[in-house]
Specification:
CATH superfamily of the largest domain: Response regulator
Oligomer: single chain
Structural class: alpha/beta
Number of strands: 19
Number of domains: 3
CATH class of the largest domain: Alpha Beta
Strand order of the largest sheet: 7-6-8-9-10-13-14-15
Number of helices: 18
Distance between the termini: 102 Å
CATH architecture of the largest domain: 3-Layer(aba) Sandwich
């Protein structure tokens, strides 16, 4: 019998250790409240599905299944939002609430979640400096976004610009830009608000054209940008001399085919990290789950969808890490008050301390649960696409990643089939009038090339040979720099 005793003791000891190991419930529940028609509800469901099924991608919650409860409310209806929270808590096991996007309803959900000690994860633009203790937000913080746009304007060297904005929220986002006249020498800013009662922005755009301003910052909803662009083209605000900064994080989702041969510039930022290898798998799985749903707001990399995916992944990662260290249980909650989730404080701590590489880049939160440090790609219009030309970080600002050769190639492409009018004046040794023994009448009929020795002409021809473009030059000999080009002519260098 002696030979069996050590084995028995070892088995008993192992069983005791296993019984004491941290453990999550077999099933945990996350709730999502969405405004009716919000496409990010698809992203929420899809992300939960990936957490449960695609272990190779997410590598989390191997022994636990996440179930989702998705409820919809009329946009901005805080009363309905509170009713939906009560529906969620009627079923045991709720561990987190996500959404909604509308501010009034979201604020109501914040307070109810805080009262029950249930973490509340948001993905919306929210400039509130303070939020209830149990709310966190994976959306880039507006104050830091504002710094990004101010850094971009300084990098571009803009000294004059017009801001077209939709609501007062825009001015909050652009506070750092509005400070530029005090902090960045000689910057002039003009503010123009879009008319919210109509989709016809032509009167405002005509005013803008009349002002002569060619550098424009546009801050508005994604759904309005396409109409504004179309009307801007009608009014001839998409010429080679016009440059736009779009503050919307989804510039890449715009349809630019109609502007392929318009050489106006569009610059913006994207939060999606396309260098993350998981992004390709995420897009592929989305296409399989939602065939045909891959344009505009239904694109898997539309920022609201990408942020929603990262919100669910944040939840799963934090829950997984908690389960590796501590045991946790779910409780029956009462939305009317008087009950709190016993594990809520612990789980909130893990959520705030979590760091991971997500669809929208590296995700980590500050002590207030805000996302105040993040990287964005700088993107610019090239024909009918938006291409990456740099990166932005809060501590280093804008850094271009394209080489000088790549940027020169873009310029050369834009110059093809263009006529540049080079205006110059007599200036030895650059422009020398030839000493020709011909009558005055004949001299006046000679071309610039025939009557002068022009270094600028030689350089221009060399540039043409370098660029392999079809560009031609028309040169005017001027006694002074007063313009002799007709108003309808463009392309003066």
């Amino acid at each position: 019998m002696k030979c069996f005793l050590p084995l028995f003791l070892w088995l008993f000891s192992a069983k005791s250790v296993l019984a004491q190991q941290p453990k999550l419930p077999d099933i945990i529940r996350i709730g999502g409240i969405f405004d009716q028609g919000d496409p990010s509800s698809k992203a929420f469901r899809h992300a939960v599905k990936l957490v449960n099924m695609d272990r190779s991608t997410f590598r989390t919650l191997v022994r636990t299944t996440v179930t989702d409860t998705v409820l919809e409310i009329p946009e901005g209806d805080s009363f309905k939002a509170s009713k939906k929270v009560c529906e969620m808590t009627a079923v045991p096991g709720l561990t987190t609430i996500v959404g909604p996007q509308s501010a009034s309803a979201a604020n109501h959900v914040q307070n109810m979640a805080n009262q029950m000690h249930v973490p509340h994860i948001e993905t919306r633009f929210d400039y509130a400096p303070q939020t209830p203790a149990f709310s966190i937000n994976v959306h880039p913080h507006p104050s830091v976004l504002g710094k990004a746009y101010a850094d971009l304007i300084k990098a571009l060297g803009w000294k004059s610009l017009a801001i077209l904005f939709q609501t007062e929220d825009s001015l909050v986002k652009l506070q750092e830009v509005l400070k530029l006249p005090q902090t960045f020498e000689d910057v002039k800013i003009t503010l123009r608000q879009l008319d919210l009662t109509t989709d016809d922005y032509r009167p405002l755009l005509k005013e803008l054209k009349k002002s002569g301003e060619t550098r424009i910052v546009l801050d508005c909803e994604f759904d309005k940008i396409q109409d504004i662009l179309k009307q801007a083209k009608e009014i001839e605000l998409t010429s080679d001399y016009h440059a736009y900064i779009f503050t919307n994080l989804d510039v890449e989702r715009l349809e630019l085919a109609d502007y392929k041969f318009d050489n106006f510039n569009i610059t913006g930022f994207r939060i999606v990290n396309t260098a993350n290898p998981d992004v390709g798998e995420y897009v592929k799985s989305w296409s399989q789950a939602y065939p045909g749903h891959n344009r505009g707001k239904n694109h898997p990399l539309y920022s609201a969808n990408a942020l929603m995916s990262d919100a669910v992944y944040l939840y799963a990662k934090a829950m997984n890490d908690l389960g590796n260290v501590e045991s946790i249980q779910t409780d029956q909650l009462n939305c009317k008050g008087g009950s709190i989730w016993s594990g809520g404080d612990t789980f909130l701590r893990y959520l705030k301390n979590m760091e991971f590489s997500g669809i929208t880049g590296d995700v980590y939160l500050d002590q207030n649960g805000h996302r105040t440090y993040f990287k964005m790609d700088l993107i610019e219009k090239s024909r009918d696409n938006m291409v990456k030309t740099g990166i932005w970080l809060p501590d280093t600002g804008v850094n271009y990643t394209t080489t000088s050769l790549e940027r020169d190639a873009i310029v050369v492409e834009q110059l093809q089939n263009k006529t540049l009018r080079v205006v110059t004046a007599k200036n030895t040794p650059f422009i020398i009038v030839k000493n020709l023994d011909v009558p005055k009448e004949a001299l006046e009929r000679l071309s610039f090339e025939e009557s002068t020795k022009a270094m600028s002409l030689i350089l221009s021809k060399l540039l043409l040979q370098k660029s392999n473009s079809n560009t031609s030059f028309i040169l005017f000999m001027m006694a002074n720099m007063e313009a002799r080009i007709q108003p309808q002519e463009s392309g003066m260098v």
